[in-house]
Amino acid sequence: MRKKKKGTSLTSKKNSALLIYKKLIYGMDIVPNELLYQIIEHIRENSINEIQAVHLYRDMLQTESFYKAVKASIINPSLDIRSIPLGYNSSSTIDDNLSWIFATLTCFSQELSFFIHIKIDIENAILKGNFEEAHHLLDNLKVNCGESLWGVSTRLSCYFFEDRDSEILKFRSDLPDDINTTSSTSILFEVAKSRTSTTYQYYLSSLSRQREDLRAEGLSAYEDLIKFRYNFEPSENYNDYRVFIGGYANSRLCDLYSFFLRTLRYCYINQINLDKTLKEIRRSDSKFNDYELTLALGKFDQLNNTNEKLNSITIDNTVSEIFDAYIAENFDEVIRLANIALTERPSLSIIYEIVAKSINYTSEKLEVTGPLSDIIECISNLYNKYGIHYNVKKLSKIFLNLKQCDWAYHLKAQVYKYEISDRKGISKQYNFADMVQVNLNPFDLDNITKLLNTPELKKELFEYYGEYSFINESLKVNADNLAISKNIPIWRFLKLKADYAFHNCQYEESTELYNKLLAIDCPHFCSHEVQSRLIESYFLNSEYDLVINKLSEVLLAGFEPSLFPLKEVSKYIIFNIKYNTDIKLLEACAVILHYYNTEFSEDDISQEISNISENLIRVLGFDSLDSLEKLTINDWPVQPLILTHVLTIDVLDGFIRLFDDDIDVYIARIKICSNLLRDLDSEEQSTLYRYILNEYNSAFNRMVLYVCSSDEIEGRIQVDKESLKVLLLDELDSDYSLLKDMDILEEDFKRIALADHKNVVTISGSKFHLKLTDMIAKIFKEYTVNKLFGLDNSLNVGFRHGEIVNHFWAPLKSNKIAGRKLEDGTFNVEAIFEDYKLYDHEVLNNIKNSYSSFLKDIDQTLIGFRNLCHVDSGEDVTNVERLFGYPIKTKLLDFVVELYKEGASLQQIIEEVFDMLDDKTDLILSKIKNKNLPEFRNILLEKFANFIDNMEFVPRNFEKKINLAKAQCEDRFDKLDNWFAWSGDPKSPFVLGAANHKAKELVSSLYPTIKIDYEIIDTATFIISSPYFTSFATLFSLIQENSVKHCGYDEHLSITESFLGNGDKFYIKYSNDVHPSKVCALKAKIEEINENLAGNIIDKAAKDTGSGIYKIKSILDNRIKLRNQMHVLLENNRFNIVIEIFDIEKIKYEDLNS
């Protein structure tokens, strides 16, 4: 703003400026956009102060041609929804900018009144499931208020709730080519959130990658805009509010008003001063007849303690009656009143939770339909602890499609409870959504506390709320002589007083009250909520040992972990619990860290669990590998969970003293699992039994991979498929069972080409196909982005986490020409040119500036390539430029459908999808090596060459350093090429005897006390390609281990191995002695085994008790993938496994150089 000249009044200055602006547009029917923008910008930048700027702007809006131009910009039928910025000033405060926006809004009060009322009708229609009516109303909105992001988002949400994915894709395909990038990006995110295949977490991941791209381009300041626009969070502390205000300054009318209201609420929740904006609202004649704006203004009046404070507090009779009925446990009345209220106002989300809890205690039926019925059902299921993960996923997806409505943050508050995050965030979600519908929620202790801080106000409030018992009593909650109303249960007052004490940091009192509450036998309060608050009270009162033991108890009792302060307690344990001899404390710490690491930790904390677990084991007296391997549940003196779930391979691997090498770690876990399997009841095939069996299989397979991975290679691409298989077999078991109850129809898939012509998306209305697609998507997700075992973990650790950037930055650093990167992304190069001060000053400055730009260019190039090393998977791959894209194609869907029809087991389906993903990864790696890396190499080296060529003068010594760094970068591309290869796969072709020898080493290490005599007959001299080495080594290991485990001999065993080649097939035969005591039992099993093998019934590969026969067949069918026949027989007390393999030409090694 300019300073006012002395002797000139503000009014005179304003009138003079106004006259000039009016002259500029005199005679125009409508001001051109460019001139409109220039005038608005001039007003903001050259007015003496913000008040004058707003007044000038408002006066200009009274000019018809100016008004028409602004209206054409913000009320327009075009999908190019980002128009010219209407007066955003980056140097102004959030208050100044909001008051300016309000000046725009007041000039369109008629259109806004239409939007405000039709918005309610649209929301009601959607929630009731009246989608045809909703579309009709959206059409009317477009006619009267133009196109808007709110309208687009809501229409796409309609399609989602109607299950019309094809319409969403058609909308995307029909987007005009000429809309600007900002508009297109905004719309495509709305498309993504409504896609059936897009989960809430996938949506958030896409936003996260978008923010990474911004950082890579040096535009990190715009991250706040991305977060505010696409994933608004009331509790978020945005770095610069001006950024997202600037992003909304060019919005259409409906979006501008929605943003204005949302920001008002955000500022109230986070106590940001808006005096100027509030004054503008109060002095304006136009409030657009909006109840929501009136409520927001009232909340500020309460907060700011204005004279209008009491008048701002109004009561919603319907809501208060429902509250009072609920508090009095009159659940029939709650449902009766809710049916009336939700028929008229389906979006009355403040009562959703109360209604969802009440329907569990009454036979009264809630008469709601459409998405509202799904919402209430989800919340009810969550409080019943029924299908928590499913209902959280479903509710979060519903919220995602209602996120344009601020009342929907009541839904997000429900979802937020199941995320390990700041507990204050939940309160802000509730408070934010409350502001849309009421100005006082009796459960909002934060607001009640603020109101009670004024004694004279407290007295008036008691009188004001007289007839509404709970609100009245809640306002008296801190009175000493609390009167117990006969209509309100004692536990409710106890909880209210405990919550109030907790809220006011009186933790000793709150712990006492919460403990009293837990002693009451009442089904109507949520014990997990009380338990959680009790633990939080202990934690905040620094009673840490008590916190740890209490939290461990509730976790082991089966309470949902996410509802407790798991993150805070885990962090405390990690940083504060050192060596200890308290067995109970160590046990509790191990349990807590296990739950945190398994479900919620962003970082792997296996080493921290290792430290605690090793401490516990040594205190318990298990101080040798031998003693650990003999552990059984009966010998284990503490929680079985530690033995069954905590002591995983990754945790055991972090032990410092017990193990000499990695193979000991695998053996320990295998033997612990083997002992557990003997102790557990295999007949019932319990969940725990299946888990331990999968752990056993995973440990065994991982040991084989470790033993076989002896070649020194530099590949960094890794997917731990065995561990993922364990997870998926458990996760997908119920989904697979559901398929059996669904009809397999001949599905006519609809294939829709997207606008970019790079993807074809499949739509299906069949429940079977949708469920199967969902299962495939889960397999894709675990394979690609599982944080511990998936592909993206190896990309993160091996590529993105500084590796690529540092790899090529090293030559510049070693030659001492790397400069120093500043916060704004530029480079300080002064130190590099210290030795060149004698050169001409102008010439030297030119070199410095050019070199600084060169370094920034190199940095952006490296970061850009690094950011391509991400994974996109699913049907809606968001960035086709990323190197690792895994779209779900119809060919795969058709293939898996056929697999299922043929009777494939869940394990077979998982392995087949894994194989196809491996094939896709091989293609990606080939493309990277043959196309992407050469392109990246040319771009990077060309930048070095261009820098030298474009400089008129460069000091000779400096030029030598540049050229040396360039040569070193060129050499480093060979190493980078090696990184893009599978990690751990042998390179060399092999004969069968080599794989068999590896198997002998492995089995000998597993059973060191048994002496095995091998007789080998080997006439198979052909050479096999290297990728099959691990599969054959695993196969031979399983055969030999099967012999050892089931022969009945404890000290000595003889095995005959035969490998016989014959043309295009070969035979594998293993024969071993069987103890006479085992012969009868074995005879009874052989017939069943051969029938299953002949019928290809090998689903027992993941379920049997350890014979390994079906696993051997599974490897032949699913990993080696050659036609084969297999059978077993018993001859002369010797057990025989006979395998005949055909078409071996497919796996033979072909020397391309011969």
Please provide a written account of the structure:
The protein has 1154 residues and is mainly alpha-helical. Among the domains are: 75-304, no CATH class; 314-441; 772-985, no CATH class; 992-1146, Heat Shock Protein 90. The strands form four sheets. The chain has a five-stranded mixed beta sheet with strand order 7-8-9-11-10. The chain has a two-stranded antiparallel sheet with strand order 1-2. A two-stranded antiparallel sheet has the order 3-4. Helix 48 (992-1006) packs across helix 49. The longest helix is centred in the last third of the chain and has 45 residues, at 906-950. It is globular.
Quick tags:
1154 residues; 11 strands; disordered N terminus; two-stranded antiparallel sheet; 61% helix; mainly alpha
Mean pLDDT: 81
| Terminal Cα span | 80 Å
Task: Supply the number of helical segments.
Answer: 51
Number of strands: 11
Q: How would you classify the helix and strand content by structural class?
A: mainly alpha
Biggest sheet record: 5 strands, mixed
What share of the residues does DSSP label as strand, in percent?
5-15%
> Order of strands side by side in the largest beta sheet?
7-8-9-11-10
Specify the helix fraction band.
55-70%
Please mark out the parts with pLDDT under 50 across 5 or more consecutive residues, or reply none: 1-7, 478-484, 747-763, 875-879, 1101-1106
Structural shape: globular
Gyration radius over CA: 35 Å
